[in-house]
């Protein structure tokens, strides 16, 4: 059993489909202002590990739009809450270069052990409109092969997503350790 500390139901549903034995803990943790997702996750995992007795995992993600020089990146949560998907589409009006990627950093710790971190990315494009009501956050404006993540079932998103890549890397690490 692993505690997954997140308030995001969408993240939990995706993680749950990968790890059977996951318990969501919506207890919050400090998300420091930093230049990288790795720094945010490294700080957060120490905090949650000190508060929960058992294996713990957190995950920090961001959307990086090439034409916007990586924006919103580490500010993705704030930007989603403020200008949202329509705001990103407005910033991208008349922009031809639409490439973007999601990055996920997962951090995991067991009591008394150093934490470990795994990363994943998915590359795609910012569409011209929001499509699909599945998923969460930026999913409706992020397209892979002309289908938005918002149009995908969890199983489809988990075949390609940044989060599935980072979490599968953690799973492999846990399995390899078992021997
Ligand atoms: P955080 O990892 O919870 O800090 O997420 C940062 C922001 O990116 C939030 O607004 C999330 O909704 C958004 N986000 C994170 N992962 C995804 C994803 O898989 N799809 C769409 N939006 C995401």
Chain-wise SSE layout:
Layout: E1 2-5, H1 9-18, E2 22-25, H2 37-51, E3 56-65, H3 76-82, H4 84-91, E4 99-109, E5 116-126, E6 142-144, E7 147-148, H5 154-160, H6 162-178
Parallel strand pairs: 1-2, 1-3
Antiparallel strand pairs: 3-4, 4-5, 5-6, 6-7
Helical region count?
Answer: 6
CATH topology (fold) name = Maf protein
Q: Which spans of ≥5 residues are poorly predicted at pLDDT below 50? A: none
* Number of structural domains: 1
| Global Rg | 16 Å
Order of helices and strands: EHEHEHHEEEEHH
- Portion of residues in helices? 25-40%
- Which architecture does the CATH hierarchy give at level 2? Alpha-Beta Complex
Mean pLDDT score, rounded? 97
CATH class: Alpha Beta
The termini sit apart by 18 Å
Strand order of the largest sheet: 2-1-3-4-5-6-7
Principal-axes shape call: globular
Number of extended strands: 7
The small-molecule ligands in this entry are: inosinic acid
% residues in beta strands? 25-35%
Outline the biggest β-sheet. Answer: 7 strands, mixed
């Amino acid at each position: 059993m692993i505690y997954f500390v997140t308030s995001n139901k969408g993240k939990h549903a995706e993680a749950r489909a990968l790890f059977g034995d996951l318990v969501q803990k919506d207890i919050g943790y400090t998300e420091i202002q930093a230049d990288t997702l790795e720094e945010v996750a490294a700080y957060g995992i120490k905090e949650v590990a000190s508060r929960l007795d058992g294996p713990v995992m957190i995950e920090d993600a961001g959307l990086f739009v090439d034409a916007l020089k990586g924006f919103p990146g580490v500010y993705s949560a704030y930007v989603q809450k403020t200008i949202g998907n329509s705001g990103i589409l407005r910033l991208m009006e008349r922009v031809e270069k639409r490439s973007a990627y999601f990055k996920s950093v997962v951090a995991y710790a067991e009591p008394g052990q150093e934490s470990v971190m795994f990363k994943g990315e998915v590359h795609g494009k910012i569409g011209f409109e929001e499509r699909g009501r599945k998923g969460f956050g930026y999913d409706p404006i992020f397209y892979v092969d002309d289908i938005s993540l918002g149009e995908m079932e969890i199983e489809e998103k988990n075949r390609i997503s940044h989060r599935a890549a980072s979490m599968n890397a953690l799973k492999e690490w846990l399995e390899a350790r078992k021997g």
